[in-house]
Amino acid sequence: MILSAIAIYPIKSTAALDLQEADIEPRGFRNDRRWMVVDAEGRSVTGRQIARMVLIHATPGEEGLQLQAPSMPDLCVRTPGSDAKRLSVTVWDDVVDAACAAPEADAWLSEFLGTALRLVTMDPRSERIVEPGPRSQSDEVSFADGYPFLAISQASLEGLNARLQAPIAMRRFRPNLVVAGCAAHAEDDWQSIRIGDIPFDVVKTCRRCVFTTVDPERGERDPNGEPLRTLKTYRRSPEGITFGMNLIARGSGRIRVGDRVESD
Length: 264
Prior knowledge:
By secondary structure, this protein is mainly beta. 10% of the residues lie in helices and 37% in strands. Strands 1, 2, 12, 13, 14, 15, 18, 19 and 21 form a nine-stranded mixed sheet that branches.
């Protein structure tokens, strides 16, 4: 098996940024989901609520983020300093102390997405722990839904596309890691894997939701509810509709597309 793709999502629920190599930190890949859009009450806003979020492209740089979106001027958002305003924000059941971006970022997002929103980021003062479980205790996580990494095999997508009238891209499922060279859903049975020199625990299946029906190119939901409707026919389990596995790294370093992947 080999690692065939790496992706990060600098702002939660915005467009994927494909990489050839990436550095692993305790919260996940560097720059992955370190920023998040919230409403006036500080609650996480995602593509489940506003499909157009996937049309926003955020590119990390030394000083912050460069934002791009259709019919919008490019905007440079500086990483908040130590004196930035702070806000208690919620991600599912977690409350996180986050730093607020400049008002220009709030205005830009609010204009493009059509409602009053704010942009926040994790900094060294922010803390968030993954859901406790047999293979996770005090591990850190970013603003991702629950775990630092999501892995899917290329064969799993191919198996789904064979069932769909119109094939879809892997971007619908927003993985960080795509693995080629194994059978469809082989990842369901992994207990741990090694990518290059870095070991990972495979800790939990990934339950899929309406976000999978959002076309990342158009920023609109599929009128037929695909691929969720088809997944219901063969990927339903006691945990829900699953596709992919959540991972926690047990080391740090850099991995690259083309790295060998070994499973236990």
